[in-house]
What does this fold into?
Amino acid sequence: KNEVEQSPQNLTAQEGEFITINCSYSVGISALHWLQQHPGGGIVSLFMLSSGKKKHGRLIATINIQEKHSSLHITASHPRDSAVYICAVRTSGSRLTFGEGTQLTVNP
Amino acid sequence: DTGVSQNPRHKITKRGQNVTFRCDPISEHNRLYWYRQTLGQGPEFLTYFQNEAQLEKSRLLSDRFSAERPKGSFSTLEIQRTEQGDSAMYLCASSLVWTSGGGSTDTQYFGPGTRLTVL
It folds into this structure.
């Protein structure tokens, strides 16, 4: 069993829909990251959080440390949001352990 | 462009050859990380440096792999005697961590990656 599990693996939505991607982890962490990866490999860090909730534009990330669970929400989704969204946790030192990613496709 | 850069972007090699990749981090960043990502999977940690010191290595980093960061700036990742299983995207990231007061952003900024294909 992976230390970081994401669901769903694939998600297709219509433009404008509210999207939720989930991440569960089984280890103690010091922080959790949400990353976005576009075709061709480029990875962008969206959020780093260790408690509570963060919001940036149409993106919202929440974390529940007791339940070892985090969610990434996208409001008013747009085709340009189509990408792979990756959850990663920081355990010892600076090592990141990554989930397998959620492939999001937003259709116009 | 002041982001993380990696060279080459693509490398095709024959099994048994040696390859070397380079990563140039964001200039003031003291930490540099190497990850490997195979198709359809999330990245996997390989190793990281704080300045020129290699602080942690994954068990994925076999003795055919070696990484250096000689002056605490750019880093190289060398794979000797490549195997087909080494085919992957090799990602580099950098971050700024300061020790005074134990503060850290540790937001990792990723490069575009080097895609290695071993024939």
